[in-house]
Every structure is written in structure tokens, then in C-alpha cells.
């Protein structure tokens, strides 16, 4: 059996101001332009995970410093990474009162991502990441 190495393209980076929440529509548009060759379902999943990770960084970690998208063509995957300045690790709240707004962002990231997690950054803070793997779902193949 021959295995092909995973080759990633250079990351696509969006620098952010921690004190200013970016318009999430603009972030979704940036991702759509940057990843225009993804299948529609794969792109929507990337956009949702990116905006949820960003929203969490601004709500719980004092803002975000950078958003990165790492595209792997074989196998077809996109890794979304958000850097923030907090050392506190994210947690998924498993049960929410359906009458209460909010608190479902990481649960969505958990459902959409084939894997997700966080890692500390040198100098403080962390990177929270999620991987969208189009081979896991019956989506249209990417170009």
C-alpha cells in the first residue's frame, strides 16, 4: 500500500484587531474568495466554523489576533485556526436550555469538524482549531 503525504498549501491569513470585532459577513466573504474551489457544503462548513471560533475568541478570550485557513488537497481538508490571547482552554457545553440564546458555538464546531482542539502559543495565548474533512461527508467533491 502506498501512502501519499499530506501536502498543505501556504496558509491564508487574516490579521485581526483584538479590540475590534470583525464583521463576520466580511470574514465569510473573505473565506469564500480564498477557497472558491471548495464544494459548496465544504465551504459553508468552513465559514461556520471560522465565524464560531472567532465569535468565541471575542466573547470568551478578549479577542482574536489572527485567523488562518490551511488547505490540504489530498485528502481534501481545510484547517481553520484562530489565535487569541487567553490561556484558558475552550470547552463544549453539552446541554443547554433551548430557551437560552447562545452557548452553542463550540457544539456546532464539534459536530461539523472531524477534529478540533486547542494548543498553547509560545509567549501566551492559544490557537483554537477545527478541521473540515470533505471525505467524512457525502458532499460534492472539491475542484
Automatic annotation (TrEMBL):
It comes from the Bacteria. Residues 24-129 form the Histidine kinase/HSP90-like ATPase domain. One of its GO terms (molecular function) is protein serine/threonine kinase activity. The keyword Kinase applies. Keywords: Kinase, Serine/threonine-protein kinase, Transferase. InterPro entries: Anti-sigma-factor_SerPK, HATPase_C_sf, HATPase_dom. The keyword Kinase applies. This is Anti-sigma regulatory factor (Ser/Thr protein kinase).
Amino acid at each position: 500500500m502506498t501512502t501519499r503525504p499530506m501536502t498543505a498549501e501556504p496558509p491564508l491569513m487574516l490579521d485581526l484587531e483584538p479590540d475590534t470585532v470583525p464583521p463576520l459577513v466580511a470574514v465569510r466573504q473573505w473565506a469564500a474568495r480564498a477557497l472558491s474551489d471548495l464544494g459548496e457544503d465544504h465551504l459553508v462548513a468552513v465559514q461556520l466554523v471560522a465565524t464560531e471560533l472567532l465569535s468565541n475568541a471575542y466573547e470568551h478570550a478578549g479577542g482574536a489576533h489572527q485567523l488562518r485557513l490551511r488547505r490540504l488537497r489530498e485528502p481534501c481538508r481545510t484547517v481553520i485556526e484562530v489565535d487569541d490571547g487567553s490561556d484558558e482552554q475552550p470547552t463544549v457545553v453539552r446541554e443547554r436550555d433551548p430557551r437560552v440564546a447562545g452557548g452553542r458555538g463550540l457544539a456546532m464546531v464539534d459536530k461539523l469538524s472531524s477534529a478540533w482542539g486547542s494548543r498553547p502559543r509560545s509567549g501566551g495565548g492559544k490557537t483554537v482549531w477545527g478541521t473540515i474533512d470533505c471525505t467524512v461527508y457525502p458532499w460534492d467533491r472539491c475542484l
